[in-house]
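User: Can you fold this complex?
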Amino acid sequence: MTVSMVADKVLDCSGLLCPIPVLKTSKAIKDIEVGQILQMIATDPGATLDMEAWVRQTGHEMVAQANENGNFLFWFRRTK
Amino acid sequence: MTATIDATMNQILSAPEEGKPKSLALVASKGGLDQVYPVLIMASTAAALGWDTHVFCTFYGLDIVHKKRNKKMKVAAVGNAASPPPLQGREFRVPAFLGILPGMNSVATWMMKSWMKKSNIPDIEEMMQICLESGVHFYACPPPSGS
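Assistant: Here's the predicted assembly.
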């Protein structure tokens, strides 16, 4: 299944392990405007739980997530 | 058991109260490479989650905020019964007494660094940079020794 969604910025965290994807995402979300979409790609299976906790903590919105060929894809909307 | 842990985690991770970020204070009193990594990983992650994060560096932990010494951190080859870590399922143990041989600290340090590199974990300098950029507060709190 190919998932496509418009993203204002794409962050590739392939090959990176916890906690680096969380750190990079929280840094990258500051580079986009409020309301814009950040796409993040990770290969670490732990990223799913990490990013769910991250949105719960920071209040940003996880618009969608997908699993594609072993890659974990996330789309976040900056809320503040 | 799992349900209890889940409930506790949800409580810990639930959205912070309005205008009141959660906070974390860590005391770093050790200066070994393997002892500093957990501090910086915890601190940077907490900061990434939007927590107000403070690290009190004291005793040997002062090396964390020392510009020169934090580039030269080492792993002690003696005194760690779990060393070296079982990498990729290899269960091999170096007899503890070999740790007293000259250069064994460098060997242990090299092993640790290559392990971190393999896992794509940044070195101490980069971790420090990430912490500072994400707003972790560091405090240098020297013990009363005149150093």
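DSSP finds two helices and four strands in chain A. Residues 56 and 62 of chain A are 9 Å apart (CA to CA).
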